Structure formats: structure tokens, C-alpha cells
Amino acid sequence: MKQLLILSGKGGTGKTTVAGAFIKLYDAKVYADCDVDAPNLHLIMSQNSEPERRDFYGLPKAEINQELCIGCDRCRQNCRFEAIQRDEKYIIDAFACEGCGVCEALCPVGAISLKPDVSGELMLYSEEDKVFSTAQLKMGSGTSGMLVSEVKKQMRSKKDDAELAIIDGSPGIGCPVIASLSGVDMVLIVAEPSISGISDMERIIKTAEAFQTKAAVCVNKYDTNIVNTERIEEYCRTNNLPFVGRIPFDPEAVKAINNGLTVVDIDCPSGNAVREVFNKTIKLLFDISIIAEDI
Amino acid sequence: MKIAIPVDDKNMETSVCISFGRTPYFLIYDTESKGSSFLDNSAAASQGGAGIKAAQFLVDNKADVLLTPRCGESAAQVIKAADIRMYKTIPGSAKYNVDAFTKGELSFLEEIHAGFHGHGEK
Amino acid sequence: MRIAVLSGKGGTGKTLISVNLAAAAGKAVYLDCDVEEPNGHLFFKPEVLYEEEISVKIPVSDEKQCGGCRTCVDFCKFNALAYIKDRPVVFDEVCHSCGGCILLCPEKALSEKEKIIGKIQKGVSGQVTVYTGILNTGVASGIPLIKKLLNENRKEKGMPAIIDCPPGSACIVMESIRDADYCILAAEPTLFGVHNLNMVYELVKLFRKPYGVVLNKCQEGENPAERFCEEKGIRVLDRIPFDNELGTMNSNAKIAVRESEKYRALFSSLLKTVTEEVRHEATVNP
Predict the structure, then answer these.
(1) Would you call C171 and A142 a contact, using CB atoms and an 8 Å cutoff?
(2) What is the CATH number of domain B2-102?
(3) Interface test with B, best of C79, C83, C139, C143 (most B CBs within 10 A)
(4) Based on the domain organization, do C169 and C220 belong to the same domain?
(5) What is this structure's pTM?
(6) What residues of chain C score a pLDDT lower than 50?
């Protein structure tokens, strides 16, 4: 099963809008939302049933047994994450705790132990022959990378004989993005024609390159700044990256999204443009794989 | 010699697991005794650095050869430092790959991918 | 006074609002805590005064001292240590710098070295002091960088500080708002926007921070974000209309307050509203 990941670097460029449209156009049977911090894909994919839900245990967190604590302060002094505070008693800041276990190892009376901590929830929608895997990270949690890996694992374990899985990624370049890149055949980068958007696009391309993943670029809301759009196209030419199309800014897109639909569910300029981007991307994805098998 | 393979199930007909670090089990096949044992991979549940822990596990179990479809940078470092030779598996069951290796049909695993924990800069 | 600008969703206007608030304030400090994708410096184009590389501590082993007990390997929760051919090997990329292995080694065979994860830049643009944090690509966590940025800011007193936060509500966002006196939540009028606004709304309530919403990209017709604020009784501080002129300026990294009288007035007024809110909070909740 091939995996196509949609990323952008910068938030708000249209990853989910494009991912949703691609899923509809391909009639994908397997898809996932790896933006576990702020999942949105389910809002436009119209699921018909309740998902299977599962607690996700991230980092274990330290807990202090107040009855055993003798107040020696060794734990607080050695915590590199400032996760232990001394008020009237010693308290662990669960948001700062990284589960390293130093406090547990150093406590002379065994008053501290690491306990499993629910840091999110996994959801798996399976209807007829479709599988949609997603998750929600609990606020402040730090194991987004691990949760993303679980989302992908859950997706594959339910169904891995489909031709293509489409994955909606998260913004940024940090651990959830890095985790989502694992095992992916191609990344489609949705860029925004702004100075910020270009800067962020360059950083995400660099991140994808470090993982030796093939990348292609498209520009969303291109008509908000043609000069910058052309800059992006030039960048792609210089760096040998396939440029797969331009999508116009389209108020109809917002209407569709707000009605829980994708942009290809209605007739609109952005929907038509996304079709072209889709065609080019799919061709690249499957042509690339053919070339790889020949070697 | 001991041959290690990441596998999806605990039998010789099982498929080779696509992930090294997070494979559920390792098959250890002893070419002298012709015996096979299936070991649980505790590294699979790790938050991070699963490849490193899995590689350490193989080092501790005295594997001489590793057959795997892919391997990350950090895990490869452990494997190479321990003088374990790595070969690339071909489509087919674990048994099929062991046979292919014995007949000298497998090639060395050359493409080491960047670790999935962030470091990718050369 | 420290004002944090956040939003659950990317692209809603955090940087637009924080950059322009800082510019409207006259003397101010702008802190870009979105260390994965910093954008504020593209608008301010600050004259850089200094740069500092930020590092974390990674263990280094002394083979001669090592007794082979493997305490370090067994202790490490992140699998950053392996033991091969009678010596420990450290994997920088997964190390969380907790220092545990060094503390627990019975032979004192482990010491520490610095590993660079990114840098901080301090610069000026007009009357605004601009702090930018830039995380190196491939590094998983920007928290040490954000901590350093906010520490730098503690040295500056008497000027309002505007903190441009990362998107979302994960650990890096929490770190960014830790010191804030007030949180501005940026919201866009889409279904996605409301869904994610809810997340940061829960976050600021959890941290007991005073907060208000700025509705951005407002157009005619229904605004799901506005409806959300009504339902939850959240104060709407201001509305920024969807405006092609603003969009163009923004996409060309121009600071609206410095280019347009209309926007100078809008952001000055917003700043005044927030300042009053902060003052009010200080008297009501000292």
C-alpha cells in the first residue's frame, strides 16, 4: 500500500482542504489524520458511525507518595525539566514531567514512582470497506510523535491491502511531522504564496529531504500574490522539485468546509484546480513507484 | 551462526515485518542446530529509539547476521559496531529468506534511512 | 505586561496580530516562540544585535572508566544508550538530556557535552526589540529554546512584551504562555477554526489565564467563531475584517501598522482594550 502525506510547514495553508478533496477524488479506502494536536479531517469526511476509541498512554509521569516523602529535596534539585515544585509539599507538574525516571531513581525512600498517563485518544472509523484513523492529543501533552505513529499503525493494521493511503499531516517541522514521514512514499507540500509561507515551505522541504522522501509542491490561494507564486515555482525548478499546480483563493471553499463538505463535493474554482493537482500528483506517485521497482 | 529476522508472527511461514525497530517478534535461526526461536521484541513499545533498543537486543542475543527490509541510521550504527552483517530481505516468508540467504542470494543492505526520531543531517 | 497570542489552528493570524500589536505599542518587545516556523522576523527585518546558539547536554562516555554494569543502558527511558563490544554508545537524537545516566553511573564514567539545537537572535526594528528563536531542522523539541527566549525577556522590564505562540495546544504552546498576563485567542470564521479555538480556550482556562478573542478574516454572513464566543460567553476584543489590502501587505511581509493609518488605528485600539483588561484583572485578582 502506497502512502501519500500532505504537509505544509506553515499552518492554515490548506492541507486538510486538499487532503479531503484527494480522498474523495481517489475514493480512498484508507486515510488518516496525523494532525493529532488539532485534528480537522473528520469534520469534512462525514462518517456514518461511531469510531472505536482507545486511550493512548504516552510518557509515564512521576507521582509522589506524600506519606513516604521526607522532604530531602533531592528530586527537585535533579529534575532537568523543572517539573517538581515545593510548596507546602512536593508536587509534580504533570505537564512539564518527561517521564525520565531520575526522581524515581534518586528518591532515598522510594516515594516516587512512574505511572502510566493517558495523553490522548485514538479513534478508528471502519465502515464497509473504508478505514479512517485519527486521534486527539490531550492538551499540553508531549508525545505527539508516538501518537502519530499509533495513528498510522492503527490505519495499516485494519487494512493494508488497499492501493493508496492518504494522510493529512500537521503543521511545523517537529516531532509529529517527523513521525508522520516514516514509511511514506511521497509528500505533497501545500504552499502559501506569502513570505512566511515560502520560508516555512523551505524548512519543511529540508525536513522531508532529510528523510529521503520524494516531494512535490502545489500553491494554494495562488492569486493572493502572483509574484510570490512565481517565486515558489522558480524555487521548485532550481531545486528539481515537481510543481503540480496552482489553486485559486475561493470563498466557495470556505462555504463547502463550513457545511462539512470537501471542495470537490461542490462545483467551484478551487475544486476544479484541485482535480488537476490531484491528477498530476497521482501520476507522479505511481510512476515513481514503477521506476523504483525496476531497479 | 545465528540469523535474526524481524517477523510478524511466530512461525516460519510468517511474513517479514516492514519495520525493524517496532517488529512484534524476532526469529533467531541457528544454522548449526537448524533450530528456530521466536522472541518478543520489547522495543516495540518504546516511546522512542525503538531501533536502538531492538538492535541492542540482537547484540545481547549474539546474532551474527540480520535479514531485514530496512534499518534506521542509529540502529544500523549499533548493528555495524557489533560486527553483525545486514542483508536486505526479498518478498517472501521468513523461511524463504533464510533459504535465500543460505544459498547466497541476498545482497547487503546498503540504503540506511534516516532515523525516525529527528536526526537526519549528515 | 506580557500578552500571548495563540490559536488552535495555524494560519488564523497570530503573527499578524502579535507583530502589529508590538509595532503599535511604540516601545515593545516581540518574542517569536514559534521556533519551528518563526515568521515575525520576516516582517520586522530586525537589525540583529546578537545571536546565541542554544544547546542541550548530552552524555559522553569514558571507556577507560566504564565497568560494564549497563546501569545507564537499562535506566534510559528513551533508549538513547546501547552497549556494544564492552562500551556504551550514546544516541544524541533520542536523548532527552535528563542527566540520569550520568548521575547513576557507579564508575563516574559518563560526563556531559553540549549539543546545539538552535539559536536565538536579538534585534531591533524601530522601537521594537525582536527576539527570534530558530530550531534546527531535525530536532524534535523546541522547549529548551522557548525557555531561553522567555528568560531573556525577563530581563526587559517596563515595556509590553508580545509573545507570538506556536499553533496548537501541545507542550510547546504551554511553555509559551506560562508567564503571560493575558492571552489573545485568534479565531477564523470556519468550521476548522472553531473546532481548534475550542482547544486553546480549554488550555487558557486550565492555566487560569485571562483571555479574549480576536475574530480575524471576518466577512458577511455567519461567523461560526462568533457564535462560539456568544455560546461560551467569551469576550470578543475586536474584529479584523477580511481585506484584500491587508492580505496583500501580509503576504509581502509588510507590517500593516507601519503602512496604513487605518490599521495603525485598529491595532492601537486593540492594544488599549487589552491593556485595560490586564489592569482590570490586576485589581480584581491581585
Answers:
(1) yes
(2) 3.30.420.130
(3) C79
(4) yes
(5) 0.81
(6) none
